[in-house]
């Protein structure tokens, strides 16, 4: 197996066609087909289905595609680490959960362009469970995750402590005229929450269990955009940080109530692999992320988040 075969395979999948991939790679199509055939023989598995409309990954191909991407990224990072000068340069991929990107993505991207013009910062938005796997495999250099006691495989730096609130449509029947409720009261509502393996859900379940409480009826939705649509449709309420729904709160479409007795918060951490070394560029972005988060907390531009 050769690196060029990995590059060829990824290009074929990305472009959905051997002919288009051949043009982009500047390789004759028969040579590309031969390299693909050799790769499949080496792996002992068919990676692609060929059809008149193009090519599609088999189940084995989908698995191999993820690994091929990770390997090619690590090779690029290794080359960048060797060739970088004192001025950080190169590409850095940072993964952000959906519920954090609204607060952190744009300020971090703006700061990176200002302070490190030679670094290409690629931001990817994913579910936390997916981000952890991508960080382990090397598909992302850094990821913002939540400290749920399962982050031992990673090197971590705390960015902030973020409070969670009870959030519902402005005219919803829950607790009219109140600004504060208890956790027990919050859990009695029909809640729209992410699945157990993602986002705020593990934290809510842990705090509730420690208080001798349990969630009632839960509608599971893993997309922030769909979750907000469900809230506006009156399907239920949620327990989330304020930042993802701040535009809706500001225009009076939603309201947020503080939760006490006990309060719920989550620890936001920046994670890197313990086994894959960071490039100079990734190290610079890591430090910048800490600085940006600190400034956002201190200035109040990250609602509900405080320094820890």
Word description of this protein:
By secondary structure, the chain is an alpha/beta fold. The protein folds into 3 domains: 3-78, Orthogonal Bundle (Arc Repressor Mutant, subunit A), CATH 1.10.10.10; 84-162 and 267-306, 3-Layer(aba) Sandwich (D-Maltodextrin-Binding Protein, domain 2); 165-263, Periplasmic binding protein-like II (D-Maltodextrin-Binding Protein, domain 2, 3-Layer(aba) Sandwich). The chain contains 11 helices and 14 strands. Strands 4-3-5-13-6-14 form a 6-stranded mixed beta sheet, with helices on both faces. The chain has a 4-stranded mixed beta sheet with strand order 8-12-7-11. The chain has a two-stranded antiparallel sheet with strand order 1-2. Helix 8 links the parallel strand 9 (191-193) and strand 10 (218-220). The protein is globular, with a radius of gyration of 23 Å.
């Amino acid at each position: 197996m050769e690196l060029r075969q990995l590059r060829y395979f990824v290009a074929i999948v990305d472009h959905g066609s051997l002919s288009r991939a051949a043009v982009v790679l500047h390789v004759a199509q028969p040579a590309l087909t031969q390299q693909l055939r050799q790769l499949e023989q080496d792996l002992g598995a068919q990676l692609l289905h060929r059809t008149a409309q193009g090519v599609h990954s088999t189940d084995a191909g989908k698995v191999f595609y993820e690994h091929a991407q990770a390997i090619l990224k690590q090779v690029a990072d290794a080359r960048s680490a060797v060739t970088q000068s004192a001025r950080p340069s190169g590409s850095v991929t940072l993964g952000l959960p959906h519920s954090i990107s609204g607060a952190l993505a744009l300020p971090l991207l703006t700061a990176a362009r200002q302070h490190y013009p030679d670094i290409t910062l690629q931001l990817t938005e994913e579910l936390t469970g997916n981000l952890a796997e991508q960080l382990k495999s090397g598909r992302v250099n850094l990821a913002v995750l939540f400290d749920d006691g399962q982050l031992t495989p990673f090197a971590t730096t705390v960015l902030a402590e973020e409070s969670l609130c009870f959030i519902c449509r402005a005219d919803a029947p829950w607790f009219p005229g109140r600004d504060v409720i208890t956790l027990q009261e919050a859990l009695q509502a029909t809640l729209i929450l992410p699945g157990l393996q993602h986002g705020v859900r593990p934290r809510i379940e842990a705090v509730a269990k420690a208080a001798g409480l349990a969630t009632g009826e839960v509608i599971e939705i893993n997309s922030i955009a769909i979750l907000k649509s469900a809230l506006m449709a009156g399907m239920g309420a949620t327990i989330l940080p304020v930042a993802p729904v701040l535009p809706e709160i500001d225009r009076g479409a939603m309201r947020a109530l503080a939760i006490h007795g006990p309060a719920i918060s989550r620890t936001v951490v920046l994670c890197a692999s313990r086994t894959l070394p960071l490039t100079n560029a990734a190290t610079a972005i890591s430090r910048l992320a800490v600085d940006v988060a600190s400034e956002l907390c201190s200035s109040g531009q990250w609602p509900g988040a405080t320094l820890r």
